[in-house]
């Protein structure tokens, strides 16, 4: 029977980083994955160029039932540490916007770098390996796999969350946690487009493809980034970000002209050209197609001279504070990440080890730590993987 020091389940960002660090310390490490290829999510990330970290990473960029949990790992392996590794491999990269770092060429550069580090550290990779059972009969873990039973002193679960199931994503990590009596914060899709019903769905369909800069708020949380109308609803970075905070029944407020006080602009336009149609004036503030469709929806009619300040204020509010309530999200099919996961109250923030089950670690997306859009989720994968790899 195969026996080793560490088994890491999941050859994604977190699992590979953990295996590299554990291997460097002289431990015998085996990484198992049921997929045909490792790190498929890295490959497709960032539109194929992998937004591998963010220059401004801080604990404020993460959601968790225990917001301070991520501090320890993020502090001990920072964005600068990962950038230094990327630079050592001479991988060309650039900052796109808001501190987001992308590969110049391809996400495959990051995968090749991790596999090369794994091999240098002596780590082994076993792909297309299904795990059918996990137990801890003594101080070791026993895994039943499609390649036979395996024993290890430490077991690291790095199987990510269930988002994008067609890429091999599963809720396996939560099952393992529950099997060992650990709590799981209910998972839900995040960084995901939001959907609408009735009138707003029709409006989005008519506007599919239109994008603009917007400020989107839900409760006290606000993001200002791009917004995209789609056939199913709203997407784009500002919507993906707010989706992590939105819950069923909550309303969004969308400022479609965040640099403009629309009421002031309309009053000025009325003074300058009183005969101008309201629709025409709105077409100077918003993208033309959007102004036309909103005019139909909201009934923006008449010449400016004939419209009172009260009417203009209503129109301005429809643009600077458009209120709409999503009916749902596109779900795990398109969600970039999963909110919730293994409850951080069960884990050490230093080693990511379960306090009730010595030797069992959870890292990466499977843990209830979820980053904003912009490279923060990979940074959590690197930092938590590094922390566990150093602690095993
Ligand atoms: P990850 O999901 O990467 O790896 C888990 C591994 O476990 C997979 O290889 C899987 O096959 C394996 N596995 C699952 N179940 C198993 C089982 N039962 N048995 C064996 N193996 C199993 N983030 C970011 O910071 N920048 C970005 O640019 C992007 N872009 C992006 C685009 C898209 C389309 C998606 C879906 C996601 C992103 N993300 C992102 C998020 C990022 O990909 C994600 O947070 C990390 O990949 C999480 O890393 P993990 O290693 O935790 O899981």
From TrEMBL:
Question: What's in the keyword line of the UniProt record?
Answer: FAD, Flavoprotein
Tell me its cofactors: FAD
**What region holds the RsdA/BaiN/AoA(So)-like Rossmann fold-like domain?**
5-390
| Protein's UniProt keywords contain Flavoprotein | yes
All copies of domain RsdA/BaiN/AoA(So)-like insert, residue ranges: 188-337
Domain of life the protein comes from: Bacteria
PANTHER family referenced in this protein's UniProt entry, alphabetically: OS12G0638800 PROTEIN
Q: What is this protein called?
A: NAD(P)/FAD-dependent oxidoreductase
Q: Which organism is it from?
A: Roseibium aestuarii
């Amino acid at each position: 029977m195969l026996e080793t020091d560490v088994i890491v389940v999941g050859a994604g960002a977190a699992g590979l980083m953990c295996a590299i660090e554990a291997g460097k310390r002289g431990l015998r490490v085996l990484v198992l994955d049921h997929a045909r290829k490792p790190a498929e999510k890295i490959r497709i990330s960032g539109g194929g160029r992998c937004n591998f970290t963010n220059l401004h990473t801080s604990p404020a960029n993460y959601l968790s039932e225990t917001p301070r949990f991520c501090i320890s790992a993020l502090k001990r392996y920072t964005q600068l540490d990962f950038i230094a590794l990327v630079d050592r491999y001479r991988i060309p990269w650039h900052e796109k916007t808001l501190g987001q770092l992308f590969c110049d060429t391809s996400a495959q550069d990051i995968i090749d770098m991790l596999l090369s580090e794994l091999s240098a550290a002596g780590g082994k990779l076993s792909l297309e390996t299904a795990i059918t059972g996990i137990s801890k009969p003594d101080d070791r873990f026993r895994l039943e796999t499609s390649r036979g039973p395996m024993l290890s002193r430490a077991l690291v679960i790095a199987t990510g969350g269930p988002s994008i199931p067609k890429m091999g994503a599963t809720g396996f990590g939560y099952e393992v946690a529950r099997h060992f009596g650990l709590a799981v914060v209910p998972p839900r899709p995040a960084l995901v487009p939001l959907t609408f019903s009735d009138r707003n769905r029709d409006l989005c369909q008519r506007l599919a493809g239109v994008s603009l800069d917007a400020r989107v708020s839900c409760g006290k949380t606000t993001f200002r980034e791009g917004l995209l109308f789609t056939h199913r609803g709203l997407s784009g970075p500002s919507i993906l970000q707010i989706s992590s905070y939105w819950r069923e029944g909550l309303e969004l407020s969308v400022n479609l002209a965040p640099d403009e006080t629309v009421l002031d602009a309309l009053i000025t336009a009325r003074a300058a050209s009183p005969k101008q149609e309201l629709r025409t004036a709105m077409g100077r503030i918003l993208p033309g197609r959007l102004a036309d469709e909103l005019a139909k929806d909201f009934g923006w009619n008449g010449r400016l001279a004939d419209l009172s300040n009260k009417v203009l204020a209503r129109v301005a509010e429809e643009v600077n504070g458009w209120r709409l309530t999503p009916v749902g999200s596109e779900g795990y099919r398109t969600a970039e990440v999963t909110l919730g996961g293994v409850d951080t109250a069960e884990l050490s923030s230093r080693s990511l080890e379960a306090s009730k089950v010595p030797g069992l670690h959870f890292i990466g997306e499977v843990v209830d730590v979820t980053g904003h859009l912009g490279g923060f989720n990979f940074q959590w994968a690197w930092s938590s993987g590094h922390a566990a790899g150093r602690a095993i």
